[in-house]
Amino acid sequence: MNHGQHRSLHLLGKIGELSLFGSRFFVGVFHRPFEFREMIRQTFEVGVRSFGLVAVVSFVIGAVLTMQSRPTMIKFGAEAFVPAMVAVSVLRELSPVIISIIVAGRVASGIGAELGSMRVTEQIDAMEVAALNPFNYLVVTRIVACTLALPILTVYGDFIALGGSLVVQKVEADMSAFLFFNSVMSSINFADFLPGVLKTAIFGFIIGLVGCYEGYTSKGGTEGVGRSATDAAVLSSLLIIIADVLAVKGTVFFFEME
Amino acid sequence: MPEQTPILQVKNVSKSFGDLHVLKNISFDLYPGETLAVLGKSGTGKSVLLKVLVRLLIPDTGEVYFENKHIGGISEHELNELRKHIGFLFQSAALFDSMTIGENLNIILAKHTKMSLEERVARITESLTMVGLAEKIDEMPAQLSGGQKKRAGLARSIVLRPKLMLFDEPTTGLDPITAAQIADLIESLQQNLKIASIIVTHDLPTAFHVSDRMILLQEGAKVYDGPADLKEMEQTHLQDFVEAAKIGHGSIKSDDTVVK
Fold first, then answer.
1. Is B140 domain-assigned?
2. Which bin fits B93, alpha (ψ -120 to 50), beta or left (φ > 0)?
3. Which residues of B touch A (CB under 8 A)?
4. What is the reported pLDDT for B252?
5. Domain positions in chain A
6. Chain B residues inside the 8 Å CB shell of A129
7. Cα–Cα dist B228/B205, whole Å
8. Does residue B58 belong to any structural domain of this protein?
């Protein structure tokens, strides 16, 4: 078996294990103990602690997209459509995907490292022996937290990105906030906003699932913890991009987008 | 103690990892209040044996019975009920490092008892006092020394007042004075709480200090099961192990008496 085949088999095996781990989550999430307090704490960890990062990234997305597209739009005499173009791009695609990938880098690797270090220092075994149900306490809470936090972060990021675009429009075209938002609101509808937010719940689930899987099954001491953190960030980003293709296809189908 | 019912029965347990046969057909009984030391060189399957006893690992063959209940044949819920009666001190203490020492104990009481907050605080303080760490209740595990972590881990493992305690290398990585303190602590807890214990170690002086009976493992097989008596052990084919332990540890004197 050559190296490429070996890698492909390894990846397929990992996706199989990940699916089993995910099915264990769906069993755990409906069974006691429900760790609500830990769930809230984790949602705070994932959500609130990502606010700063998401704000910077979103502002830059909005501002750069506006700066890049303005000259072309002017060339076609469509300068008035810049806010609408930016809003549709940001709400439908850029904000959900870029925020999810950025959060995957921060949160999935963080969860992978945290649970990985708990695994190699026998803390997860200690929870098991103390009958504390570590899967529900550590895994279910984090996956639910990521699934809840990502849509909230995306809505927050959407507004910041539009704010970034507004700043550029103000500086370069002296456009008022009223005119900007009037243009945005008249060009978007619910189908532009809702699917983008809903798919981030799936992306959040992927981030939590992959981060927890990599950490919970970590092996090989401190080196293994490092590998878990890296693999969590890489695999979750890759799966987000793949899931986005399916989500866009589904959105076109269900919302009959033009 | 043949007239008593064993609290723990291990019957023909074997465990392999791939081609590596870690445990080979191990059997023994443990009686209430008895302290058993499991000795052996590193890599002879001592820690694996402890993990098999609480079903952290599932044996390839053989059965483990706790209070006549086969732990391999019960549901997850029943297993968790049973685990409440077993304390486990891990080699690294395995304190939950995102919680304070008090929270490490409280999470177990809050999950498994209906105690009020005041009752829990009293039990936590009592357990920490037993190990001499009452003043560390609000500190994080990272703020403690190695010996203090072991003591905090011990307090956590006895907070539910278990019937059986399992110690995985309780003195490894500690200086001789702290190791002796931990051994004293284990002995005093056994006297105060009357708990049956299994201590896995390769530290012979500690084993002699705290145990009534010893099992020696060599390459995964049980080669000695008898009283904690150095003379008797030497008469069997354990000469090498005892001699090595004497050289490695100053607390066994040349006349074969063990300093306690």
1. yes
2. left
3. 51, 54, 56, 79-81, 83-84, 86, 88, 90-92, 94-97, 107-108, 111-112, 156
4. 45
5. 33-257
6. 54, 56, 83, 86, 88
7. 11
8. no
Enter the ipTM: 0.86
Three-state secondary-structure class, residue B22: strand
Interval A101-135: pLDDT, tens: 999 999 999 999 999 999 999 999 999 999 999 99
Which residues make Cβ contacts (< 8 Å) with residue B127, sequence separation at least 6? Answer: B105, B155, B156, B158, B159
What pLDDT is recorded for position A252? 83
* Count of domains for chain B: 1
**Mutate which: B55, B95, B96, B161, vs A, most A CBs within 10 A:** B96
What is the arithmetic mean of pLDDT over A62-72?
94
To the nearest whole angstrom, how far is the Cα of A137 from the nearest Cα of chain B?
11
Contact residues on chain A for B94, CB-CB shorter than 8 A: 121-123, 125-126
pLDDT tops 70 at residue A198: yes
Is residue B130 assigned to a domain?
yes
Residues of chain B with pLDDT under 50: 249-260
Q: Is B107 part of any domain?
A: yes
| CA-to-CA separations, B82 to A107, B45, B110, B142, in angstroms, rounded | 36, 24, 17, 31
Q: Report angle CA B136, B140, B145 to the nearest 5 degrees.
A: 70
Asked if the Cβ–Cβ distance from B90 to A33 is below 8 Å, we say no
For B67, half-sphere exposure in the C-beta direction (CA atoms, 13 angstrom radius) is: 13
Cβ contact A132–B108 (<8 Å):
yes
What is this structure's pTM?
0.87
Whether A223 has its CB under 8 Å from any CB of chain B: the answer is no
Q: Which two tokens stand for residue B103?
A: 């929270």
A33 cis-preceded (ω within 30 degrees of 0):
yes
As a whole-number percent, the residues of chain A with pLDDT over 90 amount to: 78
